[in-house]
């Protein structure tokens, strides 16, 4: 699963929707195996549209779970017209992080109920046992 | 000022064709087309548009169209066509506009052919009054002038040989179909597919009617082998899918949904697939989903299941089971139990989800199976926030399926509703396996 997808996933347990701790899920950095998919080409327009949809504090939080503490606390802003060279550097970094970083194996936990979800063969499994369904 | 254009369509999937043209016109804000002139029985549709740019946008994505031409004239035969072209008040202007461009002539036909009886060269020479001064180029000419002959078939099996009508136009845009989309997405050539994969043609048509837009998020909650994700990716949406059956979305070896996207050179558009029960959804509630496009399980090739125990007593207390001091349900290889669910309930959930998650005017499109021989009327699920825009039927022998397309109009819409009322008396699966008797 792409790093980006962590920004879309909350806990599946419906009761946790009443809590503010069901998003983002907490990643276990020690157990996560990452891979870079260099085949995915950099496309600044595509990325800008993605960044528009992203919950930035959750990006910072998951990046920190995975050992990256270099992100700025607020969402970078980009000029509407022409992107500066500096903008492009930031966008390239974000492309590497959000799009190219693939979590192949790992686990993530709901900070409210403590349920653990696994990522296997790059696919997160968000199914629930009957007592939580 | 508007100009006349000729749309040349294909005479297939007629229950979908108008919906596709309307949806694509709406998507591009084209308002000059008079759909009252549309004729279901004809492959030709003469429309008014502001300019070539509009025509290009409108038709480039179309699957049930062949091409759009700037309309120059028509006649019952060639002499009438020539007269119609030369008598048009715009004729002198049109002739001048492209008189120095490199060009070629092409012939298209519908419903038959001249069977080689027509001398093409002589035919082209009969247009010499056009007075084109540009060079003739068979490869990459600047303009293509097209003669379209319409024949009346003698009967279902025999093509006609005498033209009924002849059109002349300047080609403005070939459709996605004409440019090879069906061959590209042909299931036979797809690395990863399964028994539930949806054919290329109608999955692309579905994406058009659902107005999947470049750069927006499309979600398929019953992704299976990813047929609709593929169609969404083709139209440059960022696609995300989920399925309760992890095996389907995982694929095998090199045969994966990801490999399909790679083959189609749409890798960037593919966000992820998740093993997830749609009815226990993990997509955060404030994530904007622009379009939902899917083919829910009918309960035939795949059963309809959701998370939970069929027999809750059997599972009572199982949450306390431990293996090596760890809760069994928290282990990596734990497989949760699932219970049967009805198609009605699943579609109700889908409508509720769409009403909650889609932006205003966002579209939900899904396929629903219907047994044909039932005397009772087919009841289409309805939600008070969603306008049922299209209900397009694809007939099979004893059953049919419908593409239902809804537009989210928000809480003030107050449309008719029947969600939660248990619409069908019998299960589609039981009817199917009883041969609809």
Structure explained in plain terms:
The complex is a heterodimer of chains A (133) and B (437). Chain A has helices at 44-53, 56-65, 85-100; strands at residues 26-27, 33-36, 101-109, 116-120, 123-125. With 133 residues, chain A is an alpha+beta fold. Chain A has a single domain, classed as N-terminal domain of TfIIb (Single Sheet), CATH 2.20.25.10. Chain A is globular, with a radius of gyration of 16 Å. The mean pLDDT of chain A is 96. Chain B has 437 residues and is an alpha/beta fold. Chain B folds into 2 domains: 3-174, VC0802-like (2-Layer Sandwich); 183-433, 3-Layer(aba) Sandwich (Rossmann fold), CATH 3.40.50. Chain B has helices at residues 14-27, 52-60, 78-87, 91-97, 120-125, 181-184, 200-209, 227-234, 246-250, 257-263, 312-315, 343-357, 428-433; strands spanning 3-9, 44-49, 65-75, 103-110, 143-151, 163-174, 217-220, 238-243, 270-275, 291-294, 305-307, 322-323, 326-327, 338-340, 363-371, 386-395, 399-408. In chain B, a hairpin with a 2-residue loop joins strand 12 (322-323) and strand 13. Chain A binds chain B through residues 1-2, 4-5, 8-14, 17, 23, 39-41, 43, 45-46, 49-50, 53, 55, 99, 107, 115-116, 118, 120-121, 123-133, and chain B through 215-217, 238, 240, 242, 244, 246, 249-250, 262, 267-268, 271-277, 280-288, 306-309, 312, 315, 318-319, 329-330, 332, 334, 336-337.
How are the SSEs ordered, and which strands pair?
The complex is a heterodimer of chains A (133) and B (437).
Chain A: E1 26-27, E2 33-36, H1 44-53, H2 56-65, H3 85-100, E3 101-109, E4 116-120, E5 123-125
Chain B: E1 3-9, H1 14-27, E2 44-49, H2 52-60, E3 65-75, H3 78-87, H4 91-97, E4 103-110, H5 120-125, E5 143-151, E6 163-174, H6 181-184, H7 200-209, E7 217-220, H8 227-234, E8 238-243, H9 246-250, H10 257-263, E9 270-275, E10 291-294, E11 305-307, H11 312-315, E12 322-323, E13 326-327, E14 338-340, H12 343-357, E15 363-371, E16 386-395, E17 399-408, H13 428-433
Parallel strand pairs in B: 4-5, 7-8, 7-10, 8-9, 10-15
Antiparallel strand pairs in B: 1-2, 1-3, 3-6, 5-6, 11-14, 12-13, 15-17, 16-17
């Amino acid at each position: 699963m792409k790093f980006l997808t962590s920004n879309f996933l909350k806990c599946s347990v419906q009761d946790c929707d009443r809590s503010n701790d069901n998003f983002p899920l907490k990643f276990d950095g020690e157990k996560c195996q990452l891979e870079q998919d260099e085949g995915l080409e950099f496309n600044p327009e595509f990325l800008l549209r993605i960044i528009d949809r992203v919950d930035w504090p959750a990006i910072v939080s998951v990046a920190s779970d995975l050992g990256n503490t270099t992100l700025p606390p607020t969402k970078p802003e980009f000029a509407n017209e022409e992107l500066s060279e500096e903008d492009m550097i930031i966008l390239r970094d974000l492309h590497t992080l959000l799009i190219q970083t693939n979590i192949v194996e790992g686990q993530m936990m709901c900070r409210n109920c403590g349920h653990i979800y696994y990522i296997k063969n790059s696919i997160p499994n968000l199914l629930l046992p009957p007592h939580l369904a | 000022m508007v100009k006349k254009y000729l749309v040349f369509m294909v005479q297939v999937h007629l229950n979908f064709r108008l919906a596709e043209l309307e949806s694509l016109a709406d998507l591009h804000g084209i308002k000059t087309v008079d759909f009252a002139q549309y004729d279901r029985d004809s492959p030709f549709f003469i429309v008014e548009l502001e300019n070539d740019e509009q025509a290009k946008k409108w038709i480039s994505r179309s699957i049930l169209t062949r091409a759009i031409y700037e309309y120059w004239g028509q006649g019952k035969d060639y002499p009438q066509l020539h007269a119609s072209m030369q008598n048009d008040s715009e004729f002198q202007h049109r002739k001048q506009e492209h008189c120095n461009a490199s060009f070629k002539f092409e012939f298209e036909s519908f419903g038959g052919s001249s069977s080689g009886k027509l001398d093409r060269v002589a035919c082209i020479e009969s247009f010499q009054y056009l007075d084109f001064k540009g060079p003739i180029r068979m490869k990459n000419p600047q303009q293509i002038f097209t003669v379209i002959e319409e024949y009346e078939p003698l009967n279902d099996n025999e093509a006609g040989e005498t033209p009924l009508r002849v059109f002349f136009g300047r080609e403005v845009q070939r459709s996605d179909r004409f440019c090879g989309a069906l061959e590209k997405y042909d299931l036979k050539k797809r690395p990863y597919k399964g028994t539930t994969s949806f054919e290329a043609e109608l999955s692309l048509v579905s994406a058009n009617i659902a107005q999947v837009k470049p750069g927006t998020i499309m979600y398929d909650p019953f992704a299976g082998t990813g047929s609709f994700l593929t169609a969404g990716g083709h139209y440059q949406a960022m696609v995300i899918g989920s399925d309760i059956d992890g095996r389907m979305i995982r694929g095998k070896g090199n045969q994966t949904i990801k490999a399909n996207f790679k083959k189609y050179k749409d890798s960037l558009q593919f966000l992820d697939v998740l093993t997830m029960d749609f009815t226990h959804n993990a997509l955060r509630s404030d994530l904007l989903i622009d379009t939902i496009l899917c083919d829910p399980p009918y309960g035939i090739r795949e059963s309809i299941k959701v998370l939970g125990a069929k027999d809750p007593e059997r599972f009572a207390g199982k949450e306390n089971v431990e293996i090596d001091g760890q809760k069994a349900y928290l282990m990596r290889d734990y497989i949760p139990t699932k219970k049967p669910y009805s198609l009605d309930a699943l579609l109700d959930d889908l409508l509720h989800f769409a009403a909650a998650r889609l932006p205003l005017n966002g579209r939900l499109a899904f396929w629903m199976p219907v047994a044909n021989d039932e005397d009772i009327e087919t009841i289409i699920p309805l939600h008070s926030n969603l306008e049922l825009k299209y209900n397009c039927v694809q007939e099979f022998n004893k059953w049919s399926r419908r593409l239902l397309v809804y537009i989210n109009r928000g809480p003030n819409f107050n449309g008719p509703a029947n969600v939660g009322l248990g619409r069908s008396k019998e299960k589609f699966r039981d009817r199917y396996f009883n041969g609809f008797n």
